[in-house]
Design a protein that fits this description.
It contains 24 helices and no strands. The protein is mainly α. Among the domains are: 82 residues, lambda repressor-like DNA-binding domains (434 Repressor (Amino-terminal Domain), Orthogonal Bundle), CATH 1.10.260; 142 residues, Serine Threonine Protein Phosphatase 5, Tetratricopeptide repeat (Alpha Horseshoe). This is Helix-turn-helix transcriptional regulator. One of its GO terms (molecular function) is DNA binding.
Length: 431
């Protein structure tokens, strides 16, 4: 049962200040505990507890055992860390009246449109949810089912329903995490990680960065290396797209070291380790570090040899998936021939989801386009669209290749069909 103390004006004031030390002091006093008593329970000195209560920021490694000892609800920790916010008081399906024009979702949408950015209207609700998470419509026990549903939509390339599904999923997952268990916190982290991957795919990097940051914080609260690795990967993808290659590398390498330190005792940890090696290799390739990229992708291949041919658990890496990353690494290093050769060693049947099969074809399309082969590029793009249309229409970088191909090579085989697909028929006729 939720402790009403945390809804009191005093508690709400401390939460709003986002001062972690003040929160610790408040929780200690709520339990009628002196600093010396808390110090004994935590195996710390009284002066250490006193110093901690003066600090605005405390590491999650320090905060986690204190939260357990002082029974601080997860939603309170999340709010103080800036991870989550008090839920709206609205009923299902309604929205609170905005406090100002800046808070009005429709106002924000018009401002974004005026700035020349393309933001799907369906994302407005998800953007608003990040500011004030709605009350959950489903019980906490429904999170695994909702997460499987959201993952299935992503894997099948049915992205138009993702914002609404993610909003409901995140609301339910955060409510489920109020019991402060490591498993619940890890579950929320995986939900935000999926949200970040979806938002990165459609090039909404501001929102994707917010989701990745929350995924990472929840992962640290859980202490689960799998959740930490998955969230770090999501964040590194955002940083890479923001041209922050150095930061992306640091995030990835830190997560790699954390996972490797476990000794990789389970297949899931081995898979996550291989996944992070792939991400690190691609990040190095985008930064132009040829030797590091080749070394990392080779190590990923060696790590993946003992893995099953189908995805398992939180990581989706397989030997074939490593091969797909190799295509991307060669393309990023401007080795189009090597990228095509690596891609032709793979077959769509090695990938169980339409999203991954579509990704194989789009990665090959990028390589063929880099090589200056319009016919093969068109063929690859059409193959991708047959697997998952959103891989061509929903990813701005791939759609840009398709548009340029239609404009520059209107007579090439396959381009007429491609022009119909992307709605560029009139453009093709004018060329």
């Amino acid at each position: 049962m939720r402790d009403p103390f945390w809804d009191s004006p005093r508690a709400r004031q401390v939460i709003a200040r986002q001062h972690v030390g003040a929160l610790i002091q408040l929780a200690r006093e709520h339990h009628g505990m002196q600093q010396c008593e808390l110090a004994v329970r935590m195996g710390r000195s009284k002066s250490a507890v006193s110093r901690m209560e003066q600090r605005r920021a405390v590491s999650t490694d320090e905060l986690r055992p204190l939260a357990v000892e002082l029974s601080i609800p997860a939603w309170v920790i999340g709010a103080v860390l800036g991870l989550m916010y008090p839920r709206g008081s609205r009923v299902a399906g309604s929205r609170p009246a905005p406090a100002s024009q800046e808070d009005d979702p429709m106002r924000r949408r018009s401002l974004v449109t005026a700035a020349g950015l393309s933001v799907p209207a369906s994302l407005v609700s998800l953007d608003t949810a990040f500011a004030a998470m709605p009350s959950p419509k489903q019980p906490p026990s429904d999170v695994p089912r909702q997460l499987r549903r959201a993952q299935a939509l992503f894997d099948s390339g049915r992205l138009t329903r993702m914002p609404q599904v993610l909003e409901e999923l995140l609301a339910t997952a955060e409510a489920a995490a109020e019991d402060r268990t490591a498993a619940a916190c890890a579950q929320v982290s995986h939900c935000y990680t999926l949200a970040s991957h979806y938002l990165s795919k459609i090039a909404q990097y501001r929102l994707s960065g917010q989701a990745a940051d929350r995924a990472r914080t929840w992962a640290k609260l859980s202490g689960d290396p799998l959740a930490e690795g998955a969230s770090a990967r999501a964040l590194s993808i955002v940083l890479r797209h923001r041209d922050q290659a150095q930061d992306a590398t640091l995030v990835t390498r830190t997560a790699l070291n954390r996972i490797e330190a476990t000794g990789l005792p389970t297949p899931r940890l081995t898979a996550m380790y291989a996944q992070m090696l792939c991400t690190a290799a691609y990040t190095a390739a985008r930064a132009g570090d040829r030797d590091d990229a080749h070394g990392l992708i080779a190590e990923a291949g060696r790590s993946a040899r003992a893995l099953p041919a189908t995805p398992h658990g939180a990581a989706t890496i397989t030997p074939a998936a490593v091969g797909l990353y190799e295509v991307g690494v060669h393309w990023a290093l401007h080795d189009a021939g090597a990228a095509v050769e690596a891609g032709q060693r793979l077959h769509p049947t090695q990938f169980r989801s339409p999203e991954r099969r579509g990704r194989l074809h789009t990665d090959l399309a990028r390589a063929w386009w880099q090589w200056g082969r319009p016919e093969q590029t068109a063929e690859a793009l059409l193959s991708a669209a047959r697997e998952a249309r959103t891989e061509v229409l929903g990813r701005p970088s791939i759609r840009r290749i398709a548009v340029d191909l239609v404009r520059q090579h209107p007579q090439a085989p396959g381009v007429r069909d491609l022009s119909y697909l992307i709605g560029a028929r009139s453009t093709a006729r004018q060329m």
